[in-house]
Task: structure prediction
Amino acid sequence: MRVLGIDPGSDTTGWGVIEGDGRHYRLLEYGAIRSSQRKKFPTRLLQISNGLEEIIARHRPEACAIEDGFLAANVKVTMKLGQVRGVAMLVAERAKLETYQYSPRLVKQTVVGYGNAEKHQVQEMVRVLLSLKSAPEPQDAADALAVAICHFHHAGLTQRILAAEARMKLTALSATRRRVSR
Result:
């Protein structure tokens, strides 16, 4: 499976693409879409949209994992982040990607083992988990990679739960058929 991780930001939107089998993963590419605060906000949203579309076309991921929003002290900042997240979700939906959202706390808990981990700790664990020589820069890209890694861990768990439920239903169905045929 190939996953695009996105860390939405109105100035810098981090992204990273990793692929794996649920237990092992490897980095394909990462980066950031930077937009100038001097540009009108709708123009910046368009730039983010175009950048994400180009990344999706180049890497053809099967899923998109987006960091969920959080409440910033400034309501305007929270609203802008929500709009950037909306653009990212729209781009993913247009590309027919399954989209998943993970809270910053869950991402940190999954990748670092501590939900209140600091940015540099996330960067270092991403470096270790992806066997990189240096920590991914900028931090927004490292955060996006962490979101993608988080998705691999949680998607794998979900798939195992669904498989177990299917086996249980099949076993129950077989037992019912044996009783009926007697």
Q: What stands out?
A: Residues 139-181 form the longest helix (43 residues).
